[in-house]
Amino acid sequence: MRIISGKFKGRRFNPPADKWPTRPTTDFAKEGLFNILQNTFDFEELKVLDLFGGTGNHSYEFISRGCADVTYVDKFPGCLKFVEQTAKTLDIQPFIKIVSADVFRFIERSVAQYGYIFAGPPYPLPTIDTLPDLIFGKKMLAPGGWFVLEHNAHHDFGQHPRFLQQRNYGGTVFSFFEMPEADANA
Fold first, then answer.
1. Which of 5, 54, 80, 89 is 20 to 30 A away from residue 16, measured at CA?
2. Residue 142: how many CA atoms within 13 Å on its side-chain side?
3. 3 state DSSP class of 149
4. Average pLDDT in the 144-170 region?
């Protein structure tokens, strides 16, 4: 795992391999995703939510590029410990809020709005198809905000009313959803 760009460009981190429950986004897929995001958002002004945060890969990338408000959510103790240690190593604790929680319970209790939400759930998660509706139902996206869901080719969100686009990077698929400015208060 490496940080692609920004202040920490090139830094590498190796999460423990034993019984590690994550599937970190490949550098190839992450680079493609961030090429799209950097042409859409001002990272320094963006409030980010990283669901199923795993290794913290996306959180570090945002902070490296100037984002100062990242919330990371995961329930696996090994991941939480790894992200806490990495945040200390990078000296980014003021920019990342690390939340130990089940993602679905976090969404249920959430009252905050974010400009960008990323979810990288386990591909075999049986409730992966419910995530877009949960995010929009709780009005978690700010006007103009994006929700990006990482999944495999077994899921198709093209008919979702807030679907924006899909990008494929090998076996990794990103579905993009948008909170239109006019719909934000609906």
1. 5
2. 11
3. strand
4. 94
Cross-strand bridge partners of residue 69? 47
84 neighbors 91 (Cβ within 8 angstroms): no
Whole-number Å distance between alpha carbons of 131 and 121:
10
Instruction: Give the rounded distance of the alpha carbon of 93 from its chain centre.
Output: 18
Q: Crossing angle of helices 77-90/57-64, nearest 10°? A: 20
Q: Which two tokens stand for residue 147?
A: 């929700």
Assign residue 144 a region: left if phi > 0, alpha if psi is -120 to 50, beta otherwise?
left
Domains of the chain in sequence order: 28-34+41-178 (3.40.50.150)
pLDDT, position 129? 95
Tell me phi and psi for residue 99, to 5 degrees.
-115, 125
Report which of 43, 3, 48, 47 is spatially closest to residue 25, judged by C-alpha positions: 3
pLDDT at position 39 over 60: yes
DSSP state, residue 183: T
